[in-house]
Amino acid sequence: MPASATAAAAPTVPAAAMASRVLACTACHGKEGRATQEGYFPRIAGKPAGYLANQLLNFRDGRRSYPQMTYLIEHLTDDYLREMAEHFAAQDVPYPPPPAPQAPAAALEQGRRLVHQGDAARRIPACVSCHGSAMTGVAPSIPGLLGLPRDYLNSQLGAWKTGQRRAHAPDCMADIARQLTPDDVSAVSAWLAAQPVAGGGKPARTLPAAMPARCGGVAEVPVAAALSAR
Ligand code: HEC
Ligand code: HEC
After folding, report:
1. Could you tell me if the CB of 55 is within 6 A of ligand 1?
2. Quick one: pLDDT at residue 5?
3. Using CA atoms, how far apart are residues 9 and 140, in angstroms rounded to an integer?
């Protein structure tokens, strides 16, 4: 096995070997990892490579749980997982149009406002301040929020509230999810799931301003000066 530092730079695994390696994954995540916008399975195609790798490590090491998937990867090495993450990150497949919104107009507006503006009085930062103004994430470690099923979004935010999903410390998403009421969670999920995906869903290269909080696993994006000293 080559060192992980070099594995990230160029595809080191021949295409045919990679195709058989990821065959089991596509049974749930769909051809090329593109999933569908209904149902539950999240799309993994075209997501930032560092984010995908962090998630595979999270499942393998117990910070996330989905036993039917975890058993496939529990004995795999970091390098092997990173190579699969690179493979899915490199898939460039179009997003279908979003499903019709599944919430009343007032809830959708509440969701839109939280995503774009947050709620300073309740210490909820705008989601776009980290996930990017197009909500397509930031390379290499911050995921986009579009093209995901509403049920999946609801479940992830709920899992962060209860501690069932964890990220590398400091777990900024756990702090944010705990500030959201159940109504906020369903409003945000319903609004996000109904948005079209702009620009092929490609993650942004940088954020225009520093992130409002520190997040583990995200080394490359600056954090607001007042926070970086903590
Ligand atoms: C039995 C169905 C199934 C199989 C097989 C499967 N997955 Fe998953 N995967 C899921 C589900 C469901 C989730 C979301 C679980 C949750 O957190 O609720 C998930 C989550 C993920 C995530 C995180 C996505 C995100 O946006 O955070 C990644 C990455 C991933 N899977 C990669 C893989 C890879 C690589 C394989 C093959 C080695 C694989 N999966 C096989 C069902 C599956
Ligand atoms: C301070 C930066 C920051 C802010 C603000 C933020 N996020 Fe996140 N979010 C992250 C990071 C970093 C991750 C990846 C965590 C990991 O590695 O598991 C993430 C992951 C997520 C995921 C998981 C996506 C997936 O594919 O599983 C969802 C859903 C999410 N955030 C929703 C939100 C919502 C909704 C808001 C606004 C209420 C928000 N985030 C605000 C940094 C942030």
Report:
1. yes
2. 43
3. 13
43 CA → ligand 2 middle, Å: 15
**Does the Cβ of 141 fall within 6 Å of ligand 1?**
no
Cα distance between residue 176 and residue 5, in whole Å = 32
SS3 225: helix
**Residue 140 preceded by cis peptide, ω within 30:** yes
Q: What is the DSSP letter of 97?
A: P
71 lines ligand 1 (CB under 6 A): no
Contact 203, 48 (CB under 8 A): yes
User: What is the structure's pLDDT at 126?
Assistant: 98
Global pTM exceeds 0.85: yes
C-alpha 78/C-alpha 94 separation (Å) is: 29
* Res 221: pLDDT: 63
Taking 50 as the pLDDT cut, the residues of the chain under it are 1-9, 228-230
* 92-140 confidence digits (pLDDT tens): 999 999 999 999 999 999 999 999 999 999 999 999 999 999 999 999 9
Question: What's the gap in Å between 131 CA and the centre of ligand 2?
Answer: 7
Query: How many Å lie between the centroid of ligand 1 and the Cα of residue 171?
Result: 20
Q: Which ligand is nearest to the CA of 51?
A: 2
Which residue type does 61 have?
Answer: D
Ligand 1 neighbour 58 (Cβ under 6 A): no
Domains of the chain, with CATH numbers?
Answer: 4-89 (1.10.760.10), 105-228 (1.10.760.10)
